[in-house]
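Lab notebook, page 48
Experiment: co-folding of the full assembly
Goal: obtain a model of how the components sit together before planning crosslinking
Operator: M.T.
Materials (sequences as entered):
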Amino acid sequence: MNKFTSKILSAAVALSVGLGFTAAVVKEAAAWEPKKPVEFVIMAGKGGGADRLARFIQGIIEKNGLASKPFVPINKGGGSGAEALRYLKDRAGDPHVIMATLNSYYTTPLRNPDIGVDIAEFTPITRLAEDTFQLWVTTDSGITTVDEYVAAVKAAGPGNWKMGGTGKGQEDSLVTAMLEKKFDIKVTYVPYKGGGTVAKELIGKHIDSTVNNPSEQAGFWEAGKSRPLASFTPKGKLQGRFGDIPTFEELGYGSDMVYYMQRSVIAPAGIGEDVQAYYVGVFEKVYKSAEWQEYLTNKGLIPGWLTGSALTEYFLTEREAHRQMLQAAGEID
Amino acid sequence: MEVLGLLINGFVIAFEPLNLALIVAGVVVGLFIGAMPGLGSVNGVAILLPMTFLVPPTSAVIFLAAIYYGAMYGGAISSIMLGIPGASTAVATTFDGRPLALKGQADKALVAAAAASFVGGSISVVLFTLFALPLAGVALAFGPPETFALMVLAFATFIGLGGDDIPKTLFSILIGLVFSTVGLDIISGEPRLIFGGLTGFYHGINFLVLAIGIYGIGEMLWTIEISQGEVLMSKATVSFRRILSNLRDLKGNIKTMIMGSFLGYFVGILPAAGATPGSLMAYGVAKTMSKNPETYGKGNIDGVVAPEAANNAASTGSMLPMLTLGIPGSPTTAILLGGMVIWGLEPGPLVFTDHPDFVWGLIASLYAANLFALLINIGFIPAFIWVLKMPFTILAPIIFVLCVVGGYVPTQSMHDVWLMLIFGVVGYFMRKLDYPMAPMVLAIVLGPLAEPAMRQSLIGSQGDVMIFFERPISGTIMVIALFLIVLPLIKNMRKRRKRNAANGPN
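Observation: model returned without errors.
Model output:
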């Protein structure tokens, strides 16, 4: 081998090693990206608040190109979200699954220890907002105030007033329990698979009242078919047209008639920190998008970005609060 | 005729070059997605949703509607050709489509499916145009008692006048209902029948897994047995003239097509029902109405026509609750709904007045998609027949692979693949012992709809069963259902008396 060729050879070797090294560094520095479509599990049925929200988020992600692979919503609403929770547990370590949560995230594992889900194990991604609740009746009922409502329920006789809501032990039933306790009334609670169906059942007069989220009744309210009587929020928290609905506090029923629904995103246990960081990044862009900010105001949600350990802490505090609520309602021991 | 003016305006929109191109592309894509077992219109619409952000909202929904329609046509193809339901909506098409193909009449079945789909699509679009708003009221009037009554009626059509052995049919329905309760209870959230905590059962039994197992695998095993090692080849042939004569032969099936279309459309507009229950119910009703119900399941062309007309009609129908109530009538429309929100269109009672261009453009494009789906589908029939001409020794492994893929795709878990194989073996034995399998499939589809409806009704009435009979709509449906169940018993008794009378003098 002459000198020249060996020089070229060593240069080539050096170059290729160098390239290889750079490639390795680049590979290491490159953030995690999904390699296939991401399953976006919704722990509620189609057409409800959680479902609409998840599909809206999917739209924002796709419209603005926030992710390299599509986020595909999948409804697993069975058993008050137990189906979805169990699904996430079984997918531990899978980086291609995330889930949009609601408050059944706390209540369902508490009520069904059998499903073997501990939410402390899941990986928190972000809390995007807190959804609110209002008391709704049909316009045809002629009821315009909370006082008239209470009188109507009492006149119907115990158990004859039908309140529709999502699964037993879920948000709607807790809010209903609050109402019953506050006003000393007794209603029959009829569970449905999703808030959208509940809204439609009210308009079809199969039930007498609901505690729907704003987004679920908005269309019927606009069309003059349903009417909100009062909002389960603190004074001045809601903006836009939903801000015009009186709160229970403003109506003089005390400040304890407040209940929120968290709108968060979580991932299974055992995913890498890089994967977690990736999803937080995607949702941060979602949160800052004009579409999201507009949605919050239009649909009566309260903004609430929260992530990391603060979110875990929030989840655990809320779980404790719900444990007490369920105990008070006699749902669990 | 304000509606007519709006519709003509809609046609102008649908026939814009971009929209027309999207219709054709959507139909072709949908046809193939629908024909692939395990992939249905849901997957097609979900995968292609992002693409629609590149075009205006009206064009976007036209594209997705064309995929939806194309998939409804396509689902029938693998049902008929391979005996594997191409999509959940095409399960009922397998019942008679596959036997027809085995008899060498695949072309007849494919033409019938295409023509019935076209009729179903056309009738439903006309109904949609004329009665969209009043029918939204019907969807509202359907509460839990009405839904339950409708489900009872569906079961009744499978028991009554069936021509099959009634105890065997009942057994089949009941076992299907048991399967449908596996998983988490909808009302209380408690797990039920999970075989000591097998995690795969928490999600319930996906009915497509059952259908692919019973029909795909079971059918394959059966064919292997009857061929006895001989190389079996389908005798299918096809020519343009045959297609035309097949079309002419369908004159006698028009009544069934019209029945299927109306029924499918009606079931489609009920929120939560959708095209799968619609097509199964149409099959049951067609069999009930038929003069010779015993030929069903053995290759009766009406058994292909009814569900195909119904599933296309239902797919149009399910647009109605989505647009007017914001509640999707089927999984696919749920995805369309998500699309509408991001396009800035708020579904709800006001969508017809706030966005007439969108609504009527969509309706007109349904007409157009329907026509193109028919033409494209018929154009492809020779290619499909060519596949059928392969010897069964080659076809069987292909069917097996497609079944496994189809069982895996919906939930992506091996649990479902094993379950599907077990159902396949069970299906083979059921067939050997002459148990009807269609009622079992019906039960596993309708069970999850019937059970919560019944429990919601009874919670509302505080346990009073009369709620199903007191309300005018549910009461009427219940009485018809009970009549259909009792009728065969009376018929049987009469037959026996006649026989006794005939035997008496001797």
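Interpretation: The domain at 134-243 of chain A is CATH 3.40.190.10 (D-Maltodextrin-Binding Protein; domain 2).
Next step: discuss with group before ordering constructs.
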